[in-house]
Amino acid sequence: MDYKKLSELLFPNNKLTVEEIEKKYPKRKLKKGAEVTRFAPSPTGFMHIGGFFQCVIDRNIAKRSGGVFYLRIEDTDKKRELIGASTIILETLKRYGYLPDEYEEKGVKVVGNYGPYFQSEREEIYRAYAKKLVAEGKAFPCFCRKTEGLNDVKEKREKMFSLGITEDKDVCRNLTFEQIEEYLKDGKTFAIKLKSKGNGQNKIKVQDVLKGELEIQENGEDAVLLKSDFMPTYAFAHAVDDFLMGTTTVVRGEEWIPSYPLHIEIHEALGFPLPKYIHTPLINKIRENGGKTKISKRIDAEADMRFFAREGYEPEALIEYLTNLANSKFEGWRKENPDKSIDEFPFDGFNITANRPVFDILKLNDISKDIISKYTAETCYQKLLSWAKEFSEENVDYLVKDKDYVVKVLNIDREKPKPRKDVYKWSMVFDTFDYMFSAPKNYQIDESERKKFEEVLRAYKKYLDLSDKTIWFDKIKEMAGVLGYATDNKLYKQNPNTYKGNVAKVCEFIRVAITGHKDSPDLYEIMTILGEEKVRERISLIV
Questions:
Q1: 123-280 — its CATH code?
Q2: Model confidence over 374-414: pLDDT tens digits?
Q3: End-to-end distance of the chain based on CA atoms, in angstroms?
């Protein structure tokens, strides 16, 4: 068959050649060792934490090597595309300080010289390479089978891989030129498929930066390159784009391993060098039954990156946590360097965890507590206000009107050598410090101690003095002694039955009356911020 003639028959309007295209995408000028990575999500919904996990790896590899990190939107599956999803992706990256070196804000601006950065705007490029493959006898038109979408192809490859089947040759590869011509005259649509050289039996060795050498069955499938609407499949588009955009390292989930041989064959057919691949483990979550499954966008709120923004988690806390999940050396480095910027961590792609990491929100909370505890009260206020403007508008007026008071509240037990760690997300501030904004509705007091509790509060009305912390505490001790409480803790431990309790118990009663809780930050600081009038009002609510 005259394949050159066939390519002209199939692509009569596609005049752009691959030579012309490649002149527009010159080889990047990079320093030795620099890596070019890309975050390439599909705009089919919210940004999944698993995708952002890979983004963290992408960005760190590029930045630490002095390379380039770019964003490419893989929007070729128009049936599944969600309007506004690409905006969500870019806004999420901005929120976390991960604005790429190169990206496109559709209809607004393009940053970088290797765009368009939306695959839907690169159709002519894919057609040119598909035409070239047809002209070389490496691809053919398929009329007889409905072409699969991106998910279908991926699922099909995974199923074939699990069954040990990789050969799937298409009968359309044997059509004559005349038959093809007749089909076209009849108005039949077609897809372009790879003419696989594999037989589905041989094993090939493939390289993975993380997993090392893998031995898996070669590709034996005549896979779709261009669907019947002439939009490319992921396998074809990513090979073309990664070559033209100079990608050196591809980070993606390990669920793509079954498709790896196909991707290798497509690269070989195109004559492209293969980038390095890092197939990362999927993020898991422990279920109520003790089982471990991958985090799900259907049932896990944490799967959606917007969850952390709504809750008010600090971006640097989530990045720190995901870096900890990704790189096995990070935890040790952080212990040795508690105050260093995460950007100083020597991240590389060879120490990424090979085991499936488990998302533990309690661990995230601990990291976030540590980070927030180091902020000044003013920084906390500005971050709280910024969060409220976006997610809690009902609190904005109060925060602005009573800024000085709110800053004082946020500064309780803060800016000290060992600051208290109560807050790990901004949405919890008003609940955590509820007693600073209104009188308690409930009190943590055992009914068996109710009489003692009320006796202390009645007496304290006479002893209340907030003029000085030493005087304040001396007055409490004096009152405790009058009421029969031990003022010397050693004596109390020696003869506990001789006393009603100790000074600590008296302070606990006062604390409960003011805050509702047995545990709180510095009691004197709380009382002085509230002021004597409010303190007396709260005591009067009880006795």
A1: 3.40.50.620
A2: 999 999 999 999 999 999 999 999 999 999 999 999 999 99
A3: 100
